[in-house]
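In this section we walk through a basic example: taking a raw amino acid sequence and producing a predicted 3D structure, encoded as discrete structure tokens. The instruction is simple. Fold the sequence below.
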Amino acid sequence: MNYKAEEIRPYNDEEGKTGQVRQMFDSIAPAYDFMNRAMTFGIDRWWRKRAVKMVGKYHPMTVLDVATGTGDLALQIFDTLHPQHIIGIDLSEGMLEIGRKKIADRDLTNQITLEQGDCLNMRFEDGMFDAVTVAYGVRNFEHLQQGYAEMYRVLAKGGVLCVVELSVPTNPIMRVLYNIYTRTLVPFVGRMISKDRRAYSYLPESIAAVAQGEEMLDIMRKAGFENCRFKRMTFGTCTIYMGEKK
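The resulting token sequence is shown next.
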């Protein structure tokens, strides 16, 4: 089954979405952390903390952070939950380089490993992780159902999947304000800061296109996840999805 978000791509060329996403994040990597803080007014930190707290109820010892980017969620997981080991994977080597520096600066290279990898075809064995997390990443998957199936495969029985994703507010008034902000101000500032004219126009387009709410839960259930639920955050601009592997 094809999903709308799979058709939204950063650039208008013939390369597949996976390659375009890699190229985009390599391009904006130096500005990524600053833009995250600026776009969300720092609230993205709170969203990650809430997600990690929800994962913490499962007491995971091994964690896979998919689309780890510059490693912010992996570091938050370590600081809060202290698992034995965290592996973060991402398409973009440019993003990973920044994340590795953060980890090295804190002398955590033995506890957190970042490596380049494609979530649609991961090298890990079945049932290898107690928890799988992905923040702001699933809308970038070239094949959403395949991505969820892979995350289910590498998750151990009794483990949990936690997805943090940007979303469109359901309240009509908030939606109007949100659209003005994300479709005008964010692309303008993004072009000024990152020098990538397309990346921050792709952002609101991909958010609007990705499955949300119950539709996202249906995709998770099709991949095998059970006890699926979601929690909307900050007027619905972010949603946390949870699912378990029984």
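Looking at the output, two observations stand out. The radius of gyration is 17 Å. The longest helix spans residues 17-40. In the next section we compare this with other chains.
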